[in-house]
Write a structure and sequence with these properties.
Layout lengths: L32 E8 L9 H6 L6 H4 L2 H9 L8 E12 L10 E10 L9 E4 L3 E2 L2 E3 L4 E9 L10 E5 L3 E5 L10 E11 L25 E11 H6 L2 E2 L2 E7 L5 H13 L3 E7 L6 E10 L2 E21 L5 E20 L3 H23 L2
Antiparallel strand pairs: 1-2, 2-8, 2-9, 3-7, 3-10, 4-5, 4-9, 6-7, 10-11, 12-17, 13-17, 14-15, 15-16, 16-17
Helix pairs in contact: 5-6
């Protein structure tokens, strides 16, 4: 021990005091790190995630759906049958929200993602997109492909008062040689996350100098979280979302709200639940309708894009042996673009699309017959 009256001995670098305390932090009542991996085909690239849209409360995101022509082009495009695959990885970090608002802002990031690759591969066959193009490398010592330093952000909408949720951007790993995964049962991996200015255990740390005064700068607090992941390839291939497309065209149908009501009625008659039904801003006579219904353990989603065009038409009639009469009236036509998403099997999707098409044709044929 050092005599308080002889503080000069503290700078003599001859005495050292090491104090150890056994400490076991309370385990948090949440799983802090969640990793979701899915495999997707090239024909699904660029399509909207209908499940995410159905769960949003703020309507359709403008950046994705205002360009109606671009969406229609995606829906009606031909299948490319490219041999690539894309592994989409999404990571969420859940932290108990800190009560002290005077502490520095929490900063979260994915420090490292590593996937044990089944063969020795070149980085030229793998491309990563994660909030801007990122470098990916193959580590021959560990047999893993790795990428680093992905920032995580907390969305402003839907914040919970007790739990802070940080999300990474979609990390899309493009696999140009998917044959390397052939007859492989699984892929193992690791994820390391780091949280600055935060201790998950709830421990409060302070720094004092040799005289017992608390240092103004304090200490740097960092929480490191390590988790293992396992991708069962058979399940990942089986759960790929298939997205068949259809385009329907109805002549002599005036695009108005009643026709959207006809579509919604046809869908509810087929046991679909309507999640979204709203016009597209800046696009006249254009509506979007998003519906879903349970299909076994999964859920089937259908997105309808209804575009209308109005015009004047003329009709000629003649009484036998008499003069001809010409009249004009309001008319139009409807284009209905539809695509759906369902894991495993697309036959049920195609069947439901055809059923909706038949129901709409029956309704619209009766409208034309009354005119």
């Amino acid at each position: 021990m050092v005599d308080p009256d002889d503080l000069d001995r503290l700078i003599a670098d001859r005495e050292t005091c090491v104090i150890e305390h056994a400490y076991v932090p309370d385990a948090p009542r949440i799983f802090p790190l969640a990793v979701r991996c899915t495999l997707e085909d090239p024909d699904s690239f660029g399509l909207l995630d209908l499940e995410s849209l159905a769960n949003q409360i703020d309507g359709f995101p403008e950046d994705d759906l205002l360009d109606v022509d671009a969406e229609a082009a995606r829906i009606t495009r031909s299948a490319s049958f490219e041999p690539h695959l894309m592994l989409r990885t999404r990571i969420s970090l859940h932290l108990p929200r800190r009560e002290d608002s005077r502490s520095p802002a929490v900063e979260a990031r994915i420090a490292r993602v590593a996937l044990r690759w089944p063969t020795v591969t070149s980085a030229e066959g793998l491309h990563l997109e994660a909030g801007g193009r990122r470098a990916v490398r193959f580590n021959p010592l560990s047999g893993c492909i790795e990428w680093f330093d992905i920032p995580m952000t907390e969305p402003k909408s839907g914040r919970d008062k007790d739990i802070a949720i940080y999300r990474s951007p979609d990390m899309r790993l493009w696999i140009t040689q998917p044959g390397e995964l052939y007859q492989r049962g699984e892929i193992l991996g690791e994820v390391d996350a780091e949280v600055s200015h935060y201790l998950l255990s709830g421990l409060e740390a302070r720094l004092y100098d040799g005289t017992g005064r608390q240092c103004a700068n304090g200490v740097e607090l960092t929480t490191k979280i390590h988790t293992m992941l396992r991708i069962v390839l058979d399940d990942a291939f089986a759960l790929r979302k298939l997205s068949p497309h259809q385009q329907l065209y109805f002549e002599e149908i005036i695009p108005d709200e009643m026709r959207i009501a006809d579509l919604v009625t046809a869908l509810t008659d087929n046991r679909f639940r309507v999640h979204r039904q709203e016009p597209v801003q800046g696009q006249k006579d254009t509506h979007l309708v998003l519906v879903s219904r349970p299909e076994g353990p999964e859920r089937m989603y259908l997105l309808f894009m209804v575009r209308g065009r109005r015009h004047r038409a003329q009709r000629e009639s003649q009484v036998p042996g008499g003069p001809r009469y010409r009249s004009s009236f309001d008319s139009g036509d409807l284009q209905v673009y539809v695509y759906g998403q369902l894991p495993k099997d697309s036959s049920e999707l195609t069947h439901e699309m055809n059923a909706v098409q038949r129901a709409l044709r029956e309704r619209f044929d009766r409208l034309r017959a009354r005119r």
